[in-house]
Amino acid sequence: MKKSSASKAVIIRTIGLEKSYGVGEAVTHALRGVDIAIFRGEFIAILGPSGSGKSTFFNMVGALDGPTKGRVLIDEVDIAQLNAVELAFLRCRKIGYIFQTFNLIRYMTALENVTVPMSFAGVTPEDAHRKGMELLDLVGLADRWQHRPIEMSGGQQQRVAIARALCNNPMILLADEPTGNLDLRTGAEILDIMRTISRERGVTVICATHDLRLLDVCDRMVWIRDGRIGKIEERKNLDIRVGKIGGTK
Amino acid sequence: MKPIEVKDPVRLGPARAFSLSLTSMYYRMTRSAITVLILTLAVAFMSYVLFYGIISNDAKYYASNRLKESRMLGEWISRLTAPDPHQIIFDNIISGNSSAVAEYAAWGRLSDGEMDSLKNICGRLRVFYSYFDAIPRSSRAVLLADSDPMTLAEQLRDPRRFEEFIILTGQLKLQTPMGGRQALWNLVAGDLPRVNELMERIRQGHRSAYSRVQKILDTVSLQEAFVKSDGTFRQVLRDAGFVIPDADAAHLARQAADDISIKRLGMVLEQPEARTAVARIMGITQSDLNLLRCVEWMHTKGRANRIASAIAHYGGREAGLDGKRLRTLAEEHQRTVILQKTVGDEKPYRRAGLFSLPPRTLWLILVSFLVCVVGISNTMLMSVTDRFNEIATMKCLGAMDEFIMVLFVFEAMMQGVVGSAAGVVLGVILSMLRAVAGYGGLVFESLPAVDVLLIALISFVMGIAIAGLAATWPSWTAARLAPMEAMRVE
Question: Which of A71, B28, B167, B225 is the most exposed place for a label (fewest CB within 10 A)?
Fold first, then answer.
């Protein structure tokens, strides 16, 4: 498979990553030095209790927020060095984001939401439309392309968000608790879609989560505790059995 | 360090920006409508103050000029029956009224040197008079003691009174007027009598000039002479040193005719039978009837005709007082009343440009402008903070800071176009309503149409500019935040 040959290439590397919020006595250290290398095509689960720093780590890796200390290298490029144009290019073309709160633009239809990043990337409206429909079809929402976020369920909105994240063929898909606001069954469906994308498209997926079902899906899991990496485990070394939901599967 | 390879930078075309803004406004219709409404109100307020400022100023200025015209006959009659008092001569010389100064020179047979010294002394007298405006109120009361600066100046010629005055100013710790005791003494003891003498010469000349005119008039009254206002009468006046400008002759004739008609109506109403008849028509008792009331009452066609037919047998017909004439008199009177009401107590102000308005109006305009800016800024700030999450999402999708600015400022300006247009229209309507309510149809005669259009344009552009600028700052702040920081602001 493609993945095994590419697994040696490092796509994201963090070196001594630290992040603190606030100043003086009110300062909180969200990350206290994280060193990790993530390989191309990997499916990584980032686990940890609330407040452990996994969302902060997610933001650092996704170039959504700058580190206080240390470096983040994406495809061997230090993101602290990038100017506004390069940063926008990175966010638009290289990374796809999925949020716990979906973050669709509420006044746009499903298709318009999916095509926004493509219009930023300079894709013609016709091509964007075609590609957007393909992606909506991929997540099983082709018939709802005209619906606005408010007319869709949480699971459907998250699927639109996944389609949007994929529209510029990113190398990396970042998901921050994608199933956090969904019920068990829809959560499972979303994880299913993400696993399919990871396997079929060779996209590197980094997923911060509480959801232990993810362990069944990922290649490696990274446990973060108090702003540091607690442990890293390979999926194949782990013997877990995930319960089935609702009698399906 | 390896650089990133940007093959194809992110972009946002104008067409796409336009359609994104439209979609956003269409979907958030209620919110947009509120924003537009606030914009409308703000611009309406600002333009209303501006419109009303110039409309009412021009109406007042226009009315004061018309009023001056309507007083022309009275002024001429007083000039042809009594010499100008010292006060008026003084005012005319100080204000540099050149035609009056020329007349004075002719009447008083003043040489150029005498006229110059008269001007010079009047100037210094004014300095002396204004000394009393500059000192504290209590000191003024002590120094003037119920009198006025002019009378005081006359009194100071008495050396004892002069000494008292100098001592008083010393006790009050004031400077001596005119910069010193000697200068003051020269003014009151030397110059003031000289001025009085020159002014008396002018008055004497004036008196003989109009008596020459009156001699020629013989049996005809001044008013009748003015009604004719033919070449001979004007020539007589010119020979005596009074020049009627061509533009005023027609006015004077009409006013004199009205004056005569009113007098005749008064004479008719002095007859008891005519009084009874008119009082019955007006529905009041005879004792309540007077000329003014009658003139006020007969302003409609029906009323004027009824009065005319009632007084026809008592000399009304001979006097030419038919219904039409009476109604004209009533309308003329009404108009004068409206003009007086319009002018009010304020000094009429002649605008030299669009914003050369009295300071009070300018203050009001400034305040309304600030209210407009604050109102619009607040609305824009709210509509941006409302959408922080959207901004953060857009940035995650690869939007540059500028894209967000463009979208928001563009949207704000489109709202500005609609809001400002509506606001200007509302402002015009409101200011015209108020002006018409206050000054009546006069407003349309004095309406500075070009200036109103200019102000409409200025307010419109300002509304759009303020909306755009007001959206710039908050959207710039929001756009520069890192996406996650913006998303945290809820």
Answer: B167
